[in-house]
C-alpha cells in the first residue's frame, strides 16, 4: 500500500487516485520512513531475515508435481483453497439474479476511430448493488480481445475527455456516496485508449468503489455486507475481505463480457495498480477465464514475498487503522511470524501458470519491494516450466528499464521511478498484450 495516496480530492474524501504516476516521477532517491503505524520498516537487504519458501510443486500430502495435468487438477486447486482460507477469504459464486443493462450500445467516439459501450452490471435483483462497465472497442467486424482495468476513479473521472461517459459516484470520508467530479482523477487518457484500439484491442474499466468501499467499515455498504449471515456483525476469520470483493466484481464483469458478441471473452486481460494489482493477481489466480494479468506494484499481499522483511510487511497491514479489512481476518494471525503461513506470494504468482503474467514494478518503490516481486517470480517459475514456458530463469535482478525479462510468459519489468505506472509502461503493456493475447 502506498503511503502517499491522496485521501481528499477537493471536497470529495476519496481514499485513492486511479494511478500514482505523479508520485512515480517525484519518488525519493532513498526511502524516508523508518516507522509506519508504530512498526519499524526495513530497507536493508542484509536484514531481510532468513526464510524458507513453500515449494509450489509439493502438494500438502508431500507428493511432488511432475506433470501439467497434476498441476491443473490437483496442486493448483489446492493452492487456491489455501489462499481462500488463509489470505483473501472465500467468495460467493455467480449470483443467480445477476443481470445487465447495456444503456450505451455502441457510440462512435474519438473522430469515429473507436466505439464506446457502457453497461450496468446488477449483482442483485434490485438496483442496490451494481457497477458500471465502460468499454472502448476498435472498429472491427470481429470480436475484439480486451484489457479490463480496475480503477481507483469512477469511469467519468478518468482523463479521457469523453462527455458521453455516465457520471459516476464516489465514496467520501464519511462513507457517503457523492457525484464524482470530472477533474481527471484517473490517469487513463484518450491517447492510452487509442494506443490499444488502433491495434485491435479493447480497453474497459470499472470503478472499484462500485463493488466495495475502500475503508474499514465498507463491508456495511458494499457487496460483502449483502452476503453476511443473519446476525453477523463483522466478517468471520475465513470470510472475504475487500480485495476478494473487488476480485468478485471483476468476475461479474467477465460474466457480462461472455455475453457480448463484440468481445472475444477468451482473450481478456486484467490490469490493476497497487492494492488493485493485488486484486488482479488474485482474480487471475481464482478465475481461469481471464487469459492474462498485468499487475503493477502489487507489493505486500500481492507479488512481493511476505517472508522477506523488506518495506511494507504484514504487521503494517494488520494494524486495524490501516488495511486490515482488505483481507480475511485469518491472514493477520500470521503478522508476528509469517513463516507460520502456508502460503506466500510466489504461490499466488504460480496460480497463473500457464497463462501469461507480467509483474511491473518501480526501482524506487521501496515500500512495495520490487526485488521481492522478482524473487517471487523466480520461485514461481517451476509451475510455468511444467508447460515448457519461461520465467526469469537464472537471470540477475534486472535494472530499471531493462526489458530482457519483460516479454516472457512469466514476465518482470521495473521502470525507473516509484509506485504505480509511468507513461512508458503503456508501451510495455501493449507489446506484452500483442505478444500473448
TrEMBL record:
UniProt signal peptide: 1-29
Organism placement in taxonomy: Bacteria, Pseudomonadati, Bacteroidota, Sphingobacteriia, Sphingobacteriales
Keyword Hydrolase: yes
Cited InterPro entries: AB_hydrolase_fold, GCE-like_dom
SUPFAM superfamilies found in the cross-reference section: alpha/beta-Hydrolases
Key word Signal present: yes
Keyword annotations from UniProtKB, A to Z: Hydrolase, Serine esterase, Signal
Residue ranges of domain 4-O-methyl-glucuronoyl methylesterase-like in the record: 236-388
Gene source species: Mucilaginibacter boryungensis
UniProt-recorded name of the protein: Acetylxylan esterase
Amino acid at each position: 500500500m502506498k503511503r502517499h495516496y491522496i485521501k481528499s480530492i477537493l471536497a470529495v474524501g476519496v481514499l485513492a487516485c486511479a494511478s500514482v504516476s505523479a508520485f512515480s516521477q517525484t519518488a525519493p532517491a532513498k526511502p524516508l520512513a523508518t516507522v509506519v503505524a508504530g512498526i519499524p520498516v526495513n530497507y536493508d537487504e542484509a536484514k531481510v531475515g532468513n526464510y524458507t519458501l513453500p515449494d509450489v510443486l509439493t502438494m500438502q500430502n508431500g507428493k511432488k508435481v511432475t506433470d501439467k495435468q497434476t498441476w491443473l487438477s490437483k496442486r493448483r486447486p489446492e493452492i487456491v483453497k489455501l489462499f481462500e482460507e488463509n489470505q483473501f477469504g472465500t467468495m460467493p459464486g455467480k449470483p443467480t439474479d445477476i443481470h445487465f443493462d447495456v444503456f450505451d450500445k455502441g457510440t462512435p467516439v474519438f473522430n469515429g476511430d473507436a466505439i464506446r459501450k457502457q453497461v450496468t452490471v446488477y449483482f442483485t435483483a434490485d438496483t442496490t448493488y451494481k457497477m458500471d462497465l465502460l468499454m472502448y472497442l476498435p472498429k472491427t467486424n470481429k470480436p475484439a480481445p480486451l484489457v479490463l482495468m480496475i480503477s481507483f476513479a469512477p469511469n467519468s473521472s478518468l482523463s479521457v475527455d469523453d462527455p458521453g461517459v455516465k457520471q459516476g459516484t464516489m465514496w467520501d470520508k464519511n462513507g457517503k456516496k457523492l457525484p464524482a467530479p470530472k477533474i481527471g482523477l484517473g490517469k487513463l487518457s484518450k491517447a492510452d485508449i487509442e494506443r490499444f484500439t488502433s491495434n485491435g484491442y479493447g480497453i474497459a474499466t470499472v470503478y472499484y468503489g462500485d463493488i466495495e468501499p475502500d475503508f474499514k467499515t465498507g463491508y456495511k455498504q458494499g457487496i460483502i455486507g449483502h452476503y453476511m449471515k443473519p446476525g453477523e456483525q463483522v466478517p468471520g476469520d475465513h470470510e472475504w475481505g475487500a480485495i476478494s470483493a473487488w476480485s468478485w466484481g471483476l468476475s461479474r464483469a467477465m460474466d457480462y463480457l461472455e455475453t457480448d458478441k463484440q468481445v472475444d471473452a477468451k482473450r481478456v486481460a486484467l490490469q490493476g495498480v497497487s492494492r488493485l494489482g493485488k486484486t488482479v493477481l488474485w482474480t487471475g489466480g481464482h478465475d481461469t477465464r481471464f487469459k492474462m494479468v498485468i499487475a503493477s506494484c502489487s507489493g505486500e499481499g500481492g507479488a512481493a514475498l511476505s517472508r522477506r522483511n523488506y518495506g511494507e510487511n504484514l504487521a503494517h497491514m494488520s494494524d486495524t487503522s490501516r488495511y486490515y479489512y482488505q483481507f480475511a481476518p485469518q491472514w493477520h494471525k500470521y503478522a508476528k511470524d509469517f513463516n507460520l503461513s502456508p502460503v506466500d506470494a510466489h504461490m499466488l504468482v504460480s496460480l497463473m501458470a500457464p497463462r501469461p503474467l507480467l509483474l511491473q514494478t518501480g526501482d524506487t518503490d521501496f515500500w512495495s519491494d520490487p526485488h521481492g516481486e522478482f524473487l517471487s517470480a523466480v520461485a514461481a517459475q517451476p509451475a510455468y516450466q511444467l508447460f515448457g514456458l519461461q520465467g526469469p530463469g537464472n537471470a540477475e535482478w534486472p535494472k530499471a528499464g531493462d526489458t530482457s525479462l519483460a516479454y516472457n510468459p512469466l514476465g518482470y519489468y521495473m521502470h525507473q521511478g516509484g509506485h504505480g505506472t509511468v507513461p512508458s509502461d503503456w508501451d510495455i503493456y501493449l507489446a506484452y498484450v500483442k505478444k500473448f493475447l
